[in-house]
Structure formats: structure tokens, C-alpha cells
Amino acid sequence: MNTNLENSAQILRMAVPQMSALNIPVTPENYAIWYQYYAETNLSLKRAIDGLLANEVEFTASVNQGLYNNFIQEQSPEVIENVQIETQILINSLLNKMGQISTGTDDFSAHLSEFSHELQSEPTPQLLNTLVNNISAEVEKVVSLNHSMKADLATLGDELTQLKMDMDNLSKVAMTDELTSLNNRRAYEIFSTEQVSLFTQSQIPCCLLMVDIDHFKSFNDTHGHLVGDKVLAFVGFALKQSVKGNDFVARYGGEEFVVMLPNTEFKDAMTVAESIRERIAMRQLTIGKENKQQLGHITVSIGLANIQPGDDSETLLKRADDMLYQAKSSGRNCVKG
Ligand SMILES: Nc1nc2c(ncn2[C@@H]2O[C@H](COP(=O)(O)OP(=O)(O)OP(=O)(O)O)[C@@H](O)[C@H]2O)c(=O)[nH]1
Prior knowledge:
The protein has helices at residues 3-21, 28-39, 43-54, 61-71, 77-97, 106-118, 125-174, 185-202, 216-223, 225-242, 266-281, 313-329, and strands at 206-213, 248-253, 256-262, 285-287, 293-296, 300-306, 335-336. By secondary structure, it is an alpha+beta fold. A five-stranded mixed sheet has the order 2-3-1-6-7, sandwiched between helices. A two-stranded antiparallel ribbon has the order 4-5. A hairpin with a 5-residue loop joins strand 4 and strand 5. The chain is rod-shaped. The relative contact order is 0.08. The model has no long low-confidence stretch (mean pLDDT 82). Bound molecules: guanosine-5'-triphosphate. It comes from Shewanella japonica.
């Protein structure tokens, strides 16, 4: 900021509180006296005031008038009037723009009102000059405050975006099964609760499939745990491939998966379940890129349940699980619902 303007603003900030502490009305004349006192541009005035202050003389109207008459120069009235009008216009237009300036304007507003008040009487050219300087200084202060606030806000915005990305990432990790990259049980529980409450509110049908790999223990025992993991990933992928849109696939735990089919009637869910079963059963599993090792086929059993009045997510899951048990008891590689 221009040093002259900065000085004027500083003088203004010293003069006004001092005048108020000494109960001196902020008239243009009085302001001119105290401005020049703090600016130290009028040494005889400064000595006179220092003397009055040292002797604790009260600054009555006549003392103030005496200071003005003895130490402040007379000025031409027309010049005063013109500058007075211009300054008033400037203040008004600034006041109108106040709403557009985002923050940090309270002091500014107070100062402008002060300046405006000072212009009500007949100010001297020095005072007007001072006022214009002070107004500019205050404007620059607010503008630079706004610039730095904008920069701060931009930085804050970047930090928030980064934080939001980190949070999104974290919640993704918390909801994802590492082995299959499907939703995990926690994500399923949230989704299932939402679907049950949707059904309760608006009877939108929704079905749940519980999918369990058949004889997975013996598969693991024969081929090893790592190959077993690959099979889990394959089943997860096959489930994803078999559904669409808002359908929700999760690994519930171990070799058990769940598929939720929102807005789906029982018979359509049965078709989806059958297509999942077939897709998995028909696939010849192999491992290794060059020397492919044949692993044979795996199958899944599926239990199907639809949400019914009075259900919560646990009762729904229990019915699907009961159906899965039936599918296993009926020889596996089938769907029951
Ligand atoms: N490789 C691998 N195996 C797992 C994982 N989680 C659970 N299993 C295995 O899955 C097998 C599940 O076995 P069981 O519950 O007896 O069922 P099953 O052999 O699939 O037989 P049925 O369900 O009756 O057809 C166990 O051997 C578990 O160790 C996993 O993350 N990776």
C-alpha cells in the first residue's frame, strides 16, 4: 500500500479514539486539529496541544475553537464545497458497493459512516484532502484483505477437495472386500437396510440372493488356499457380470456372496439366480498362462427371498439363508426360493 495513504489511515485511527477519549466532538474543524496533531505537520499546533494535555486542560468548545483559529489556515468556501460534494458521492458509491465485498467490512463501514458524518458540516480543504486519503487507505485495506481472503479460501478449497477425496477413498476401502473388490458385508448391511425401508415406505419390491460355492472346502484342500482365492475372485466377477444397473453384489464372508436386486419381482429374481448358477457351472476353470492347469468346474447353490411386510434386513437374510440350506440339502447346484 502507498505509504502516504497508510500513514493517513493510521493517523485517522489514532485521532478519532483520542478525540472521543477527550470528549471532543468530531467536527471537521476539530478533526483537522487532531489530524495535524498526529501527523506532526504543524509543530506549533502540536506544542500547544501537548501543553494543554500536560496541564490536563479540558477541551471545551472555546478551547477547540481557539486552536482552530490560531493554528489552522483559513480556506476558500467554494473549493471546500466542491470537494465536499465529490467526497460525499464517493462515500455513497462505496457504501452501495459494500454488499459486494465479501468480508472484513465492518471497520470499513464504520469509518465510512464517520467520514460521511464529518462531511455534514463545512470542512476545510485539508480535512477533505485528509478524508479522501483516508477513504482510499480504507478501501485499499479492504481490497487487499479480500484478495488475501480469496487466496486463503482458494487454498482452503483445495485442502477441502483433497480431504474429501481422502475421505471418499477411506470410506470406499471400508466398504470394499479386498480379495474380490466387491462390496463387503458392511456395505451390504447398509444397502439392505435402505432397501427394506424403501419397501416399507413405498412397497417397491426387492429380492435377495444368497450364493454359496459348493464343496469349497474340498476344492481348497485339493488345490490350495491361493487357488481357492482365485476361485472366489472368479465367482465375484461372474456375479457382477450377471447383474446390471442398481443391482448390488457383495461378498458376505468366506465363500458366501449376496446379491440384492432392487425393484425386482420374485419370478424375475429367480431368472437372474438361474442365470448366475448356469454361468458359473458352465465355466471350465484353469490356472497358469502357458501351461494351463485344468481345475474342472465349480458350482454354486443359491437361496432366494423377497422382502415382505414386517421384514427387517435380518429376517430377510434369514429367509434367504434358509432357502440356501434347502438348495444345499437338495443336492447343490440349484436355486431355491
Ligand atoms: N481360499 C479361501 N477359502 C476360504 C475363504 N473363506 C472361507 N474359505 C473356505 O471355504 C470353505 C467353506 O467350507 P464349508 O463351509 O464346509 O462349505 P463347503 O465346503 O463349501 O460345502 P457346502 O457349502 O456344504 O457345499 C472352508 O474351507 C473355508 O476355509 C477365503 O477367503 N479364501
